[in-house]
Amino acid sequence: MAVVVASVLAVGALAPAATARPVPAAGRAPAAPPAPSSYRSIPPLTDDQGRTLTLRGWNVEDKANRGEKALSAITERHFRDLRANGFNFARVLIFWDDLEPRRGQYDARYLQKIERILDWAHKYRVHVLIDAHQDVFGPAFGHRGIPEWATRTDGLPFTRNYDDWFAEYFEPAVQRAFTHLYEDPDLQRAQAAMWQLLAKRFGDHPAVIGYDLINEPMGELRENEDLPTAARRIEAQHLTPMYNRLARAIRAKDRDTWIFVEPTPIVGEGVPTGLGRIDDRRTVYAPHFYDTAMEAGADYDPDAGWIEAYEAAVTAYPARHRMPVVVGEWGPLNNSLPNMGRFYREAVDSLNRYSSGWAGYVWCYGGGYCAVDEHGRFRTNKEQTATPYAPAVAGTVRSDTYDARTRTYRLVYRASARRGMTELSLPQSAKGWRVTVSGPARLLGRTGSGARPLVLARPGAQVVVTVREAGPHGRTDRP
Length: 479
Description:
By secondary structure, this protein is of the alpha/beta class. It is 26% helix and 19% strand. The chain has 10 helices and 19 strands. The strands form 4 sheets. A 7-stranded parallel sheet has the order 8-7-6-5-4-3-11.
């Protein structure tokens, strides 16, 4: 879920045993992002045909219902509408406390509901990332995630904070519960068994592209430890071994599905992660992209340098370890403030520079964080997430750009040695789209609004694909 991290800046008052000095949200000197050439060290996500994949989509969730009604808020409409707007990706939230409400007893109906959701996604050709979600650990603290039977607090105190739920991560009982999850052998085995069950059941489902091992993991701060230092220590000493442990467990049941690993949410403050090497050949780095000030209700400040600092920090780890990047959550709550139009343009440009994809928060029908209103129309500025792109490229991408001002998408790639289809995705547009292809290649299929045309190129050829929004009577508008 979106991180309301105003509390992070006052963590010393929230965690009596620790004094934190996190990176300030305002007045920070802008940090230049790495040179684009360094992004070449970040490999792309690929499919079983070796095509370069791009994921564009949204989180899909039901946090309100549990038990017999669990997941009932997720309907076929979610995936039909995602596809109609050109999106091909859904990060679907599931909860361990729903899956295994009593230790060793898995809920067969919950598994069936997950499978029904995956079937809808496959029907509309939407890739699904199964996300083992937690907020403030789980139901023992009034939230969702880790079951109560797996929550150990050693009797430490916990006080609800209804005005700022994220502050509850710094309650002593919550922090100690994370420590026990990471360190207690029986809980390690239980978590691994849960993931093995999911991998065995859904690893062959055609909609499943990956497993997100745990949402926004946190941990226990030490006395006099500032928050960035604590985050890097937790990532190095707790998250890295946990991810390797769970990856080994999953690979016993599923050899190929991508495994997604997250840093702590402190990465949103431009803090480089302390994660170490994950010994798995199909691992994706999956940070979240939230800003403290905007999550507290402020407008986007272009002069604060937050996007630049985030981009510089978040690309270092995957470049070093040769891992694709998919940003699992992003998007502000107050999306209609004066500078939010600029934020969406600059954020999408940034995300597209270094990542293989992203999932906005959240695809629902209403207000708040919802992408669309009750009628399915984009809420203010969120339409900027729906642009032309190439979900799959049968070759090596040389350039992939979108100009929001001229509504023009341009893809340059060298076709792979074996023949394969490059897929394009065109969002809804009242004007329609005009697609041109240069080089020894053919355009196949329709090119209207919401279409997904294909490009078939001669092996080894350089291909340039240009997509422009059409003007009146199908004419292409000049920039």
